[in-house]
């Protein structure tokens, strides 16, 4: 029998333990263990546990959220200072300009920056997008 132990870490369920017993008792050979495909079981259980709400950006991992908030602040500071926000993010994060643009897009999708139109920021970049 394979039993997985789960805990919520950074807002998402994570497998933190595995217990394996055989009934009736038998040898747990390398071949048997390789055939278990534990990652398939953990992925299936995790998919059942994650609700659509938990998968939203509001419950993203704390480290990812912190990075997105940092990128949003770098972007805002560059825009206020008349600089190039994508270049500022690229330099601060050690990314290419294209990588920074992709990251900025994800930060926008997470709701931490207002939308743009043809490279021009729309809305107030200094306003918290989570406050109406």
DSSP E strands, number = 4
Count of helical segments? 5
Rounded to an integer in angstroms, the radius of gyration calculated over CA atoms is: 22 Å
Shape: elongated
Oligomer: single chain
Major pleated sheet: 2 strands, antiparallel
Strand order of the largest sheet: 1-2
Q: Helical amount among residues, as a percent range?
A: 40-55%
Average pLDDT, rounded to a whole number, is 80
Structural class comes to alpha+beta
Kindly give the count of domains. 2
Whole-Å distance between the termini?
A: 51 Å
Topology as H/E string? EEHHHHHEE
Uncertain stretches of 5 or more adjacent residues: 128-132
Portion in beta strands? 15-25%
List keywords for this structure.
single chain; 132 residues; alpha+beta; 2 domains; two-stranded antiparallel ribbon; 4 strands; elongated
Explained architecture:
- It is a single chain.
- This protein has 132 residues and is α+β, with helices and mostly antiparallel strands.
- It has two domains: 2-55, no CATH class; 60-121.
- It is 45% helix and 16% strand.
- The protein is built from five helices and four strands.
- It has helices at residues 30-36, 38-49, 62-80, 85-93, 97-109; strands at 2-9, 12-20, 116-117, 120-121.
- A two-stranded antiparallel ribbon has the order 1-2. A two-stranded antiparallel sheet has the order 3-4.
- Strand 3 and strand 4 (120-121) form a beta hairpin.
- The radius of gyration is 22 Å and the shape is elongated.
- Mean pLDDT is 80; it is low at 128-132.
């Amino acid at each position: 029998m394979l039993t997985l132990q789960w805990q919520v870490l950074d807002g998402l369920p994570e497998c933190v333990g595995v217990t394996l017993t055989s009934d009736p008792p038998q040898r747990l050979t390398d071949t048997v263990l390789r055939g278990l495909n534990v990652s398939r079981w953990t992925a299936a259980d995790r998919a059942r546990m994650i609700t659509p709400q938990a998968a939203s950006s509001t419950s993203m991992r704390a480290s990812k959220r912190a990075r997105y908030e940092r990128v949003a602040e770098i972007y805002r500071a560059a825009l206020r200072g008349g600089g190039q926000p994508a270049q500022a993010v690229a330099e601060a994060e050690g990314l290419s300009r294209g990588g920074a643009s992709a990251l900025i897009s994800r930060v926008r999708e997470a709701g931490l920056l207002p939308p743009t139109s043809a490279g021009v920021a729309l809305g107030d970049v200094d306003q918290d997008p989570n406050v109406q």
